[in-house]
Specification:
35% helix, mainly alpha, single chain, 1 helix, 68 residues
Length: 68
């Protein structure tokens, strides 16, 4: 097969990478801020509405007191 010189691919050099685009680092920072914000909100709100021991806890006897 005859290939013209301008159509021949040159594999003698390895192309240089352009690296990561700057927008990727911005998205990474926004993602990390979001993850830590949600985690912080979860920790701060975890005690909301919880009272232990609850004063209104239903007391159920665990043994039969002789009633049929």
């Amino acid at each position: 097969m005859i290939v013209r010189e301008d159509e021949r691919l040159d594999f003698s050099q390895v192309p240089q990478s352009a690296g990561f685009p700057p927008m990727l680092f911005g998205l990474l920072a926004i993602g990390l801020i979001g993850i830590f914000s949600i985690g912080g909100a979860t920790v701060l709100m975890s005690g909301y509405g919880h009272h232990w021991p609850a004063p209104t806890t239903e007391r159920v006897p665990l043994v039969n007191s002789g009633n049929p």
